[in-house]
């Protein structure tokens, strides 16, 4: 009888371990960023793209306006792909686009803008990628939607597409 | 001559204390970087990785250490930006109780069984 009880508990325990490991197999071990988390806009200071002036974030992001922060670089191929959509979005009066030029050569970045157009209200330089860390980004392109209360309400990893544009438009309506 | 010797001693002691503090900061920086996961290169720590993401994180950590920010505060900053997954060592919370306490429980149960067996003999 005692042995049967032991065997019963052993089977229960092994089944428990088996289920835990089996469930663990389903979990991806590749990092997937959280895109729905709402975070406060970081306070920072960055060099302007068009001049040598350093601008404080408080001066860029005013209250009662939606902002889009787009991290881009001239060497980034997907950035080139999403650029026409950003150009279209820049025509929308309810939102201001801020570009964050990530680890780029300034001359190449200027060529990129001259060639494809400038959708940005303001471009900031992030030469070493440390500003992108403040936003919680880990690559290019990445886009953040900031609401009137200076809260990052949406984060889009990778190039934006028409579906994302529609989603943004719905939020800023 | 005596004054020169004194100045030299003061200068050298200041110089070496600076070196020691740099060494201490480097050790702390390496320790932190080894405990941070590179989020775009699977299975590598930021310390081991040469990716763009890792190099930016290295700069941020270095700046924070030089600003005198404590190790735990640096981890908190990164967790706030990227989530708890960025740190290799999981923190103790309701989601990780089993992870932290199950080995301890198994160890105690196993120990008790062994103790009982030995006592019988």
Count structural domains of chain A.
Answer: 2
Q: What Rg of chain A do the Cα atoms give?
A: 23 Å
Q: Cα distance, first to last residue of chain A?
A: 71 Å
Number of helices of chain A: 6
Q: What structural class do the secondary elements of chain B suggest?
A: mainly alpha
Q: Which strands sit side by side, in order, in the main sheet of chain A?
A: 1-8-7-4-5-6-2-3
Give the radius of gyration of chain B. 23 Å
Low-confidence parts of chain B: none
- Please give the share of residues in helix of chain B: 55-70%
Counted beta strands of chain B: 0
Kindly report the average pLDDT value of chain A: 89
Which CATH architecture of the largest domain in chain A? 3-Layer(aba) Sandwich
Oligomer: heterodimer
The greatest interface between two protein chains, and residues involved on each side, is: A-B, 17 and 17 residues
Most strands sheet of chain A? 8 strands, mixed
Number of continuous helical runs of chain B: 4
How many angstroms separate the termini of chain B? 81 Å
Query: What structural category characterises the helix and strand content of chain A?
Result: alpha+beta
List the defining traits of the structure above:
heterodimer, A: 173 residues, alpha+beta, Glutaredoxin, 2 domains, eight-stranded mixed β-sheet, 6 helices, 40% helix, B: 121 residues, mainly alpha, flat
């Amino acid at each position: 009888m005692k042995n049967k009880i032991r065997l019963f508990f052993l089977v229960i325990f092994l089944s428990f371990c088996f289920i835990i490991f089996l469930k663990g197999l389903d979990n991806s071990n590749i990092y997937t960023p959280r895109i729905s988390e709402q975070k406060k806009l970081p306070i920072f200071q960055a060099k302007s793209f068009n001049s040598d002036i350093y601008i404080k974030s408080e001066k860029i992001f005013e209250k009662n306006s939606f902002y889009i922060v787009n991290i881009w670089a001239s060497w980034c191929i997907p950035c080139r792909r999403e650029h026409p959509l950003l150009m279209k979005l820049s025509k929308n009066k309810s939102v201001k686009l801020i570009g964050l030029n990530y680890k780029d050569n300034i001359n190449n970045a200027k060529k990129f803008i001259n060639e494809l157009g400038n959708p940005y209200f303001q471009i900031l330089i992030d030469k070493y990628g440390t500003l992108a860390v403040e936003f919680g980004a880990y690559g290019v392109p990445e886009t953040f939607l900031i609401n009137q209360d200076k809260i990052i309400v949406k984060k889009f990893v990778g190039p934006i597409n028409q579906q994302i544009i529609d989603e943004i438009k719905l939020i800023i309506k | 001559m005596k004054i020169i010797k004194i100045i030299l001693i003061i200068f050298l002691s200041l110089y070496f204390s600076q070196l020691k503090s740099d060494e201490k900061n480097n050790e702390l920086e390496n320790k932190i970087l080894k405990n941070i996961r590179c989020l775009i290169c699977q299975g590598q720590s930021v310390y081991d990785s040469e990716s763009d993401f890792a190099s930016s994180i290295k700069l941020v950590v270095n700046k924070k250490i030089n600003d005198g920010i404590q190790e735990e505060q640096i981890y908190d900053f990164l967790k706030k930006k990227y989530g708890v997954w960025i740190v290799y060592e999981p923190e103790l919370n309701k989601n990780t109780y089993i992870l932290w306490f199950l080995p301890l429980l198994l160890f105690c149960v196993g120990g008790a069984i062994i103790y009982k067996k030995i006592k019988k003999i």
